[in-house]
């Protein structure tokens, strides 16, 4: 069985795209709202209580602007240098392909059918020219394989990516037969401590859910 380090996994704070139900993707910088900045401050405070000042860990972040902005605020709370944060594209959000940058309502209108399973908060169709859940899992598995099992990791990533990563580490329900496990939804700004196949929420964020608020 593969050994993984203790992972502190956080979903970034609210962005202007989240607040306006617009698909983000990974191409454009989508800055945090004032509420998002407050969420990031609360995340930093929670991690400072949990980890103390200048914790000895590996700090990973998706290269997307919204995760970097969240990480910069958290780094200040922890007394860590933002310039020591490790950026890795394998932590990007799901690639929403041709939907990127579009209003969620317009996509639904053009599709003529639901694109989301609202009960589970998941896409029920693959984004055109985009990724599907096993694609996210494949890049996350490659990232996990390179971690030092002896060093804790703090990870700032995205809503769907975090759910697939949690599914890999603690289990979850596949969206469809043959799909990868996907963990339950969590608000923006939520932080989980994951160790030994179990997770504990050390902070529950105040942001919205990802499909209704945009990826």
From TrEMBL:
One GO MF term: phosphatase activity
UniProt-listed SUPFAM superfamilies: Phosphoglycerate mutase-like
Residues binding substrate, per UniProt: 11-18, 66
Entry GO CC: cytoplasm
One Pfam family matching this protein: His_Phos_1
Active-site residues, as the UniProt record annotates them: 12 (tele-phosphohistidine intermediate), 93 (proton donor/acceptor)
InterPro entries for the chain: His_Pase_superF_clade-1, His_PPase_superfam, PGM_Phosphatase
Name of the featured protein: Phosphoglycerate mutase family protein
Source organism: Pacificimonas flava
Lineage, uppermost ranks: Bacteria, Pseudomonadati, Pseudomonadota, Alphaproteobacteria, Sphingomonadales
